[in-house]
Amino acid sequence: MMRKLLAVMSIAVVAQVFATQALAQETKRVPALREQVYSQLARAQELADNGDVSGGIAALKTVESKISSMNSYERAMLWNFYGYMHYGEDRIDQAISYFAKVVQEDPIPEALKQNTLFSLAQLSLGQGDYAQTLSYLDQWQQLMGDEQATKADVLRAQALYQKGDFAAALAPIQRAIGKAEAAGGAGEENWYVLQRAIHFELEQTVEVAKVLEKMIKHFNKPEYWIQLAGVYGQLERDQEQLAMLEAAYQQGFLTKGQDLQTLVQSYFFAGIPYKAGQVMEYALKEEKLPADLRNLKMLAQSWIAARETEKAVDALERAAKLSDDGELDAQRAQVLLNAEQYEAAIIAAQLALDKGKLEKPGTMYLVIGMAELEQENYNPALQAFAKAKAFDDARKAAMQWERYATAEQQQAERIKQLQSS
């Protein structure tokens, strides 16, 4: 879009140049533009501007029939009007062909040649002819010198980048940005976008981060915060990644589920599980993330780590409904046991056993036994420990708990006998 706008502006300036005779009087003697020629060309443009492009081109052809009597300036005007009309109809190749004929005429006003060369560079870039773009830029700079060097640097960098010559593209865009920043301001946003892309292609990740830091400072767009967080992650600068994501979240910039998930994981691995749970809950509630097994497990792990028992149990129960094995119910049983919710722990452990496919089924019998023991239900506890001994993963612990439960049962019986005597 910007390329086309620049091209149109350049062409419009040239059209205005033609409307005055003053520009014909330059250092290099340029022939005058005769009124009768200009009036015919202006009539052709009027037809085109009113929607009759074919009529405008037909009018130009009438002018062209008298080309033998036209001077270089008048011919250049004719080719320019042809180019302008073809450009308006999006026939870019034809437009380029005619604009190229403009700069081949000599002598013509310097302003006309300068504007046309730059338009040719822009149009060639849009057509993917990067070598021709650079050629036109070189011709343009020979006329301009250092004047408007930034304008040329940006276009040159774009052409070199599109050509795949990333190393060569870096210097001109850095010059353009450096000049703007040295003046106390900033370059245009698309300049930084290009600079970032070049550093990315050159695998200069640290430099990508530096450019994004500037983009946040100057333009403060949500995507730049998120991109910078991602780059910090690639650089293993985890604290900075978390800080960037947290700031983006607080500003309402994290709207995609994937970005919220990254924040959750960053909080969790940074040892801030409560915030991880909060963000995951928000993402699920707002349907930014699906309430699938993976996300519910992450939610449960966050609440477990944060010692939020009720929230952890709820998340585990929701996740377990989506699982075809008993592992999540087993985990819920452990959480409930630790929270001294013994009856609920027994129910969850039995559900895990019923569901099956447990990595360590003996552990669930241990949970049942410990929960029964805490309630002084000695016989059910001993029965559970006896079952646990059948599994290699639980045998040693089961035997220890069995001895302890037996001793507790005997002690309870002695006390009961003493109280009844």
Automatic annotation (TrEMBL):
SMART domains: TPR
TPR repeat residue intervals: 76-109
The organism's place on the tree of life at top rank: Bacteria
Keyword Signal: yes
Gene3D superfamilies: Tetratricopeptide repeat domain
Cited PROSITE patterns: TPR (PS50005)
Signal peptide from the UniProt entry: 1-24
InterPro entries xref list: TPR-like_helical_dom_sf, TPR_rpt
Record keywords: Signal, TPR repeat
Pfam families hit by this protein: TPR_16
Full protein name: Tetratricopeptide repeat protein
Organism, as annotated: Pseudidiomarina atlantica
Source lineage: Bacteria, Pseudomonadati, Pseudomonadota, Gammaproteobacteria, Alteromonadales
